């Protein structure tokens, strides 16, 4: 899923003007590398001064990722997505994704704006504005890339400017975020976002199944029980779940378990056996085997590599 843009390719003039403005605004609020929270709820700013050597697994909550500078790769299962100043990324459901910055330098750092998506607000917006509902057959991946336009860049820049007038933000930020949601719904792939947000659609039920798994990943999983929770047949659940996430519910659960175990070892200092047990593994050897398959090395070696790269 490669895209034609590279840092050496010229952007359309209007897009470049908006992109430059957005990059300048981001730089004012990111003194160094990393993820920077802001005073506006749902809004984070991200900076990277160099490409990342290894992909970093993380659970992406529903969000919009809009790059002002640089380029990034996201992997969902075996699928690879690239996004850049011409293309934004949408995760419409929570997904275990591995991400890697592929274009960045100290002179031109990777700069990204991440806005969380509130599906309840999006549902209200669909009802209030009368945006036509998509055919149910359009339910597909919960991760997609779309071409950016100047109106979306303009709205995001106005949202970031509110960081410099904090007294205005509580009143104006929700209005601008609502505008951003509206523009995403009106985009060529807005139907994907609509389908997830529409209550009682099959895609919405898959989103509920994902939420349930996120809360109960450490427990044994029976597909029939999960299907009953979201009121779908087991076969429909399996088919639709894989359509949205590119993996089966059991594969999704495994990704959650392994990512959480890795986090526990890094942030809480748990050893491999304790971390594996905490996330639901009864066999230490199975945990080590699946961890190696996921992260490319056994737990101890992987943690040593992470500490060295840090």
TrEMBL record:
Name of the protein in question: Transcriptional regulator, AraC family
Domain spans labelled HTH araC/xylS-type: 207-305
SUPFAM superfamilies on file: Homeodomain-like
A single GO molecular function term of this UniProt record: DNA-binding transcription factor activity
SMART domains, A to Z: HTH_ARAC
Cross-referenced Gene3D superfamilies: Homeodomain-like (1.10.10.60)
Superkingdom classification of source: Bacteria
Coiled-coil positions: none
PROSITE patterns from the UniProt entry: HTH_ARAC_FAMILY_2
Entries under InterPro entries matching the protein: Homeodomain-like_sf, HTH_AraC, Tscrpt_reg_HTH_AraC_N
The keyword Transcription appears for this protein: yes
Organism annotation: Pseudomonas kuykendallii
Keywords, ordered alphabetically: Transcription, Transcription regulation
